[in-house]
Amino acid sequence: MPIYLAKYIKPDFKPQIEFFEGANVGDDDLVVLLYHLEHACKRIASLVASPFNFSLGKLSVKSSSSGSDRDAPKPLDIVSNDIVLSSLRNSGKVAVMASEEDDSPTWIKDDGPYVVVVDPLDGSRNIDASIPTGTIFGVYNRLLELDHLPVEEKAELNSLQRGNRLVASGYVLYSSATIFCVTLGSGTHAFTLDHSTGEFVLTHQNIKIPTRGQIYSVNDARYFDWPEGLRKYIDTVRQGKGQNPKKYSARYICSLVADLHRTLLYGGVAMNPRDHLRLVYEGNPLAFLVEQAGGKSSDGKRGILSIQPVKLHQRLPLFLGSVEDVAELESYGNVQQTVNPGYEV
Questions:
Q1: Is residue 101 among the annotated active site residues?
Q2: Which residues span the domain enclosing 306?
Q3: pTM
């Protein structure tokens, strides 16, 4: 009998499934929040697959701040952001939402127990070519000790929590299949959308990333901008001269969720050595999910989840994947790319 995502997160369902033992599904507030996130991602999946998004993609959107650390938003990013915000408002369980598409967090509800950080549509520049995209999210408890502060201040400080305080995180991959991959702090599980029923069905129970893979995922067209340590690591593993005697293959989609999903299933390492990806919206949620699957996260020197964010759109290098692969990469030292000439795409 299929196990549906909706059945374990609907408020009227008390799960008795062993792989959720020890997780936070007994918290009714979190249950309601996840149900509304699931609904938002179904709407985004439909939007991404719609033939009408091609005309939407030709529109231009100006960034709200010329000095912002954010990339210029695209119409589909904005629509996806609005969908997630609307769903979180309707849940009644969220105090603040911080989004990669907004310069500052949105305060939603004074007594909402949760804080949500989100990248509503990662990889949106790929949509016109039908390349996979995704939604990334993380959930924290609201910091009650900040309740006395002004709204703008407490909204920002709630959103700048370290990744090791996450209570849930996940991504949704919009590709040949729509896959909702989530951790509630007790293992990582993936559900695939059944279009005949409109429900997410459990397809990957208790994912365990292999301790070592044979794939690296990085844009090695930037090889000559890399530091010596990273070049040496890549040269070594693709010749089969590393700790793993097998020759590594490159697999790079340039869509973070897609590259990470493949790495989660097959092992290896997915990386961006530049200080390009966002700690709050991408690094922390994906690191938590990978580590719950038995993997390892790093910025090249230290674990991602231990890093204290100091600003909302803070960027950093990101290395995610198999424990042994990421550890081997770190051992080379000097793997963070500091030369960022700026690439026109």
A1: yes
A2: 215-331
A3: 0.90
Domain-located, residue 155: yes
For the stretch 44-66, pLDDT in tens is: 999 998 876 655 555 445 544 44
Same domain? For 150 and 248 the reply is no
User: In Å, how far are 81, 138, 193, 256 from 177, measured between CA atoms?
Assistant: 21, 22, 7, 16
Among 102, 119, 199, 330, which one carries the catalytic annotation?
A: 119
Respond yes or no: is residue 77 known to be catalytic: yes
Q: Is residue 338 part of a domain?
A: no
The per-residue b/e assignment along 280-289, b for 16 or more CB within 10 angstroms, e otherwise, is: bbbbbbbbbb
Given a cut of 90, whether residue 70 has pLDDT beyond it is: no
Catalytic hit among 37, 47, 88, 100: 100
Residue 184 annotated to the active site = no
- Over residues 267-314, the pLDDT tens digits come to 999 999 999 999 999 999 999 999 999 999 999 999 999 999 999 999
Q: 34, 121, 256, 320: which one is catalytic?
A: 121
